[in-house]
Amino acid sequence: MSSTLRQRAPGQAEKDQLLAAAAQKEQQEATARTTAEQEKFVPPQFTVKQLLDAIPAHCFHRSAIRSSLYIVQDVIALGLLAWAHFHVDQTVASLGMSKLGYHVVRAAAHTLISIAMGLFGTGLWIIAHECGHQAFSSSKAINNAVGWVLHSALLVPYHSWRISHARHHAATGHMTRDEVFVPRTRSYVGVGDIKEEAEIDGFNVSEARQEELKEAIGDAPIYILGNLIAQQLFGWPAYLIRNASGQKWYPKYTNHFQPSSFIFRPDHKNQIIWSDIGLLITLSIVGYWTAMRGFREVLVLYVIPYLWVNHWLVAITFLQHTDPLLPHYSAAKWTFARGALCTIDRTFLGPIGGIVLHGICETHVAHHISSKIPHYSAWEATEAIKDYVGDYYMKSDENFLVSLFKNYRECRWVEDKGDILFYRNGKGIAQRIGVDENGGVSDSGVDVSADKI
Question: For the Fatty acid desaturase domain, which residue ranges apply (predicted)?
């Protein structure tokens, strides 16, 4: 009988299926090993002294006069923009456009003025932030006086935020001590327990499980966009009022306005009161301005720019500390030097970041290594740090607004346990895996015995 007609041996079909499944599994395991090797992250071993030694000494010099010139720059820009606001209507009318064209161009001009004022207002915010770090000048009195005036004008409780922000710098990347944009954990976001072994390190999670996780957390782009808009509109006041994005173990009514709040010591009381007084003075001035000149003028020249300042502040802070490639550490593995390096520099909309926002995005790693370095010296300090730490220096040139949406979607939660944690996206996928100093995968705290998976 011809071999083409010969019947296959009994069980051959089943064997072929098993062989195919085994080959597929071997390929998946090989891919997983390759991916894991490529994305392993060993925490840096630098000391604070080593990082500081890498920075030229003159970068630490603070000049009140030089710092003040940047305030002059921002105030002049805001003044010119206010002047432009009062001349827009007359200028557009002189163009002889149709009624519709007049209103469209006029609205566009006022919108651009408000956006520009928001950017220069953010620049002033950053100078006030430097005052809080004592980087504006070598005089503590000058730093606090200038910072109090500038931050109060922007409705920021100067000393209150200065204190909580110092806590953030003292514990950046620490899972239980950091102050802002602390990663939410698996249990907090409610995606359920680990169901398959691949979930532990976040590589090669099965498609079926990815869909389950995606459904559990809500990963639709429109849902993500809605939450992102809410964060950008209300994130800053929500943080000040009720500790949104901060540590969830803090007491329920933690805020930046009560001297008795958890984040303050008893000796901070007078500073918190002065911060509140600064806000009341600004609100009184804005109220008087509204009564004298009308709400429309206040809306265009203060309220809308203020909202833009809040937007940029939240976006900048979020992207400085939220990225799939940035580690977060348990108390067992955290050090100040590691925390300082688990932030990322970004390019802010071309030259705007360097000129208008004083390089706060482009030089943030150096800022965390030493927050007393003034912004005009942080550029040179950044180059020195970049050369010294090599691959541990993180930088992204991706469009800032693209990164904002993408990272909001890609950074959804971290595991409840573990010493070196990286964000997972809505499908449970991680881009990195932590490895301890001895080369072993960081303990996730998950029981992976056969009867648990």
Answer: 111-394
